[in-house]
Amino acid sequence: MFAALFGSVEQGIIYAIMALGVYLSFRVLDFPDLTVDGSFVTGAAVAATMILFGYDPMLATAAALLIGFLAGCVTGLLHTKGKINPLLSGILMMIALYSINLRIMGTTSTSSVSRSNIPLLNESTLFSKFHEFWSTLGIDTSINSFLKLLGVQYLPGTWGTLFLMLIITIIIKFIVDWFLQTEVGLAIRATGDNKRMIRSLSANTDTLVILGLGVSNALVAFSGALIAQYGKFADAAMGIGMIIAGLASVIIGEAIFGTKTIMRTTLAIIVGAVIYRLVLALAFRIKFFDPGDLKVITAIIVIGALVIPQFIEKRRERTRKAKRHLERVAELTMSKEETAVAETPTNQ
Hints:
two-stranded antiparallel ribbon; about 0% strand; mainly alpha
């Protein structure tokens, strides 16, 4: 149980980077970008292919981020310069990326031009390199010995992955916070709120949309590259439903922690991504569900995250109204009593 939940937390932190990308397009730019389902695999495909060709994992991950940025920019160009509907722009790019991803992975095969899966079982990855350094510190032994004393069984093999991903995700969170508070970031936020107003101030909203979608998909592809190295494989189908998972993380985080500031919102999304993976892990421990029910469970989680806060808010509003009504009745009663007391000597 503990090991299963631990793995979900690790995955949740990696997928949180993807959720931050979805937040930029879905919430900040108000752009329903379905490119995410394709750019996530693009990041995984680029990183896995370069690692298989012997490139350094850090360079492969950085290349995945760059290619993801370009994919997002193309979606932005389709919408702004091609005047294509935002939803359709994302769908067209997602479909195109499916074939492009097969071509990218096909460069590692001599038998065909396309390939749908690349295993990385015996390859050096970002995580394996970090584990080599982490194992020399002896931290795993100390933590696991302490947990054994507490009676915890089925301990994880290493805490290095969790530590590494926490550092990377927190750094990216602060970069996103900083970016959204720069002049360009503020303009992108304003473009998502009211594009006409920003255009009336002589700002080039087309460039802002393209840049925003580029940054969004760069984060998504970066997350895909990390997931490929974490799971030791890249697959053409690993991006299916990724946009829903990202939206679920955003909605859960916002529903629980609110959106008062940018820093609070990005932190809420990271926690939301972890909660989403934990809920999935707990759901799959119910014998009724099997892996094929993943999409149904995701839909139920998203529906719950959307409906439950509204129900709670309506209940709070009813409570507030009832409280105000009681206070008003009490005030009127007191007013009548004071009037009666004031009139009593006059009548006598």
